[in-house]
């Protein structure tokens, strides 16, 4: 068998598997048009203008059997997704027709594309850089409008521009340092040179730190804000979870201690991705199973980005409530007075003394569906209040980028340490150059084949 190369004409089904209105079999490479022409009855695809879509039929050249009625797009290099000749066969979306067309293409000069190979070619041919290629995948996987915007922003090259500018700056300084060393014009050239390096290292490190701070927000966008619903037994925690989920996921009864284990669910509240964790009510308990649940609730509080502390508004504050208030005091939290449909039994003034001075209390009745709009608004406010507008700011969301930025930051710290320790300039230069290299790995200005293989293998087939 011939080994696969980056020069082969590749083909894959680019639409999701299964039944659909239309499916696309995509080809890319030098022989894409010729290959499609062999199985196409209609216009001569080798003669049609580029970027046209052409009606016709797919015919098996061996059996002369008609396979499907199709529309075929012909897009010639270089203005294409891969910068190679691209042909897209738009067929009827059945599994059989689509697979047969793929088989025909494969027996007429194309080989099956590896996952992500189309996008890999777009990268190898310089249409997009590595961070943009990674954004393509993020875009497909995006679960909310917000994370979609962040990915699109990265696909548009905004992170790339930022990184490229930083690298340009570093390169400028490195060049200046070379000149100073080779042609010392002044006596204090040594001092001038280190000052230059120091200024630039500080400036770039500041910008890297700023980028890294967006990573935290990005993690929330991707993974959801870990939100623990806590409170003593029977206050309505599971009812609240069910309300936010719009389904009866957790068992709700009037028996205290109903929830025994931690329940985790993902919801989207006004564009905020929440990873909701319903916990067992916390109280001093003798029941062994419940005890374990309580320990897990405490753990859930520790892990949470946000805590919703539910109190029963119809009863006086208990010791458990006070303990929970204490346990969650340092957390970002929303305090809910639930069961407001019943007569009020809680002393609000007393409760207020246990809260932060500016902390609001939300009154709700999950049973009567009251006060829950305000809760949703509060969640959105807490979340977006801490997040900069991602349409204008670049956000770093990718683990590989974060790791490289952290390393680049360390390299700059070494530069600064070297300067304070009065190390020779050429040693300091090494750290600075290292930083330049590390940043280059984000955009793929320098990369190893192994990385490419690993990255693109995570893509969908046909992408
Ligand atoms: N049918 C179809 N739809 C698709 C894609 C595709 O490949 N085929 N895409 C793929 O995933 C996405 C669109 N992305 C694309 C990005 C660049 C180019 C492209 O041809 N770029 C050229 C020329 C641009 C121009 O004409 O101005 C270039 O950048 O040189 C095409 C598609 C989503 N929709
Ligand atoms: N009157 C009133 N009853 C409510 C309200 N919210 C929940 N309940 C009721 O309170 C009882 C307990 O609700 P759950 O949601 O199971 O409470 P929980 O906090 O999950 O309880 P545990 O799992 O035992 O810790 C159920 O009978 C609910 O219908 C409310 O706003 N008003
Ligand atoms: Mg419960």
UniProtKB/TrEMBL annotation:
| Residues bound to K(+) | 234, 253, 255, 258
> Any keyword Membrane?
no
EC number, UniProt record = 3.6.-.-
The residues listed in the UniProt record as binding Mg(2+), with positions renumbered to this chain, are 238, 259
| Gene Ontology MF: a single term | metal ion binding
Transmembrane portions of the chain:
none
Function field: Exhibits a very high intrinsic GTPase hydrolysis rate. Involved in the addition of a carboxymethylaminomethyl (cmnm) group at the wobble position (U34) of certain tRNAs, forming tRNA-cmnm(5)s(2)U34.
Task: Name it.
Answer: tRNA modification GTPase MnmE
- Organism of this sequence: Liquorilactobacillus satsumensis DSM 16230 = JCM 12392
């Amino acid at each position: 068998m011939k080994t696969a190369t980056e020069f082969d004409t590749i083909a894959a089904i680019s639409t999701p598997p299964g039944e659909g209105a239309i499916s696309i079999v995509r080809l890319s490479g030098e022989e894409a048009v010729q290959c499609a022409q062999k199985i196409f009855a209609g216009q001569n695809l080798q003669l049609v203008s580029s970027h046209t879509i052409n009606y016709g039929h797919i015919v098996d050249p061996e059996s002369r059997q008609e396979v499907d009625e199709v529309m075929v797009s012909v897009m010639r290099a270089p203005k294409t997704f891969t910068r190679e000749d691209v042909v897209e066969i738009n067929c009827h979306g059945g599994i059989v027709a689509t697979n047969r067309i793929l088989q025909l293409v494969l027996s007429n000069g194309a080989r099956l594309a590896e996952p992500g190979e189309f996008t890999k070619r777009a990268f190898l041919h310089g249409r997009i850089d590595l961070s943009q290629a990674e954004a393509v995948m993020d875009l497909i996987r995006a679960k909310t409008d917000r994370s979609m915007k962040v990915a699109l922003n990265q696909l548009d090259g905004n992170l790339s521009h930022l990184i490229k500018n930083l690298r340009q700056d570093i390169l400028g300084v490195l060049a200046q340092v070379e000149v100073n060393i080779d042609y010392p014009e002044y006596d204090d050239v040594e001092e001038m040179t280190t000052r230059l390096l120091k200024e630039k290292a500080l400036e770039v490190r500041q910008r890297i730190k700023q980028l890294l701070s967006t990573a935290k927000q990005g993690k929330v966008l991707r993974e959801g804000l870990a939100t623990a619903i806590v409170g003593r037994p029977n206050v309505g925690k599971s009812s609240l979870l069910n309300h936010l989920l719009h389904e009866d996921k957790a068992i709700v009864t009037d028996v205290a201690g109903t929830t025994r284990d931690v329940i985790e669910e993902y919801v989207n509240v006004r564009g905020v991705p929440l990873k909701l964790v319903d916990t067992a009510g916390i109280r001093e308990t003798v029941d062994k199973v419940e005890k374990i649940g309580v320990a897990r609730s405490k753990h859930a509080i520790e892990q949470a980005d946000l805590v919703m502390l539910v109190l029963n508004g119809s009863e006086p504050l208990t010791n458990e409530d006070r303990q929970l208030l204490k346990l969650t005091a340092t957390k970002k939290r929303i305090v809910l007075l639930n069961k407001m449909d019943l007569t009020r039994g809680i002393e609000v003034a007393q409760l207020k003394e246990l809260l932060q001075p500016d902390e609001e209390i939300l009154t709700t009745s999950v049973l009567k569906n009251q006060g829950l709009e305000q809760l949703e608004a509060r969640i959105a406010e807490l979340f977006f209040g801490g997040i900069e507008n991602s349409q204008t700011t670049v956000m770093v969301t990718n683990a590989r980028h974060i790791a490289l930025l952290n390393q680049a930051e360390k390299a700059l710290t070494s530069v600064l340490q070297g300067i304070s320790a009065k190390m020779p300039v050429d040693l300091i230069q090494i750290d600075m150059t290292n930083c330049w290299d590390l940043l280059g790995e984000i955009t793929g200005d320098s990369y190893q084949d192994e990385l490419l293989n690993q990255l693109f293998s995570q893509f969908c087939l046909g992408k």
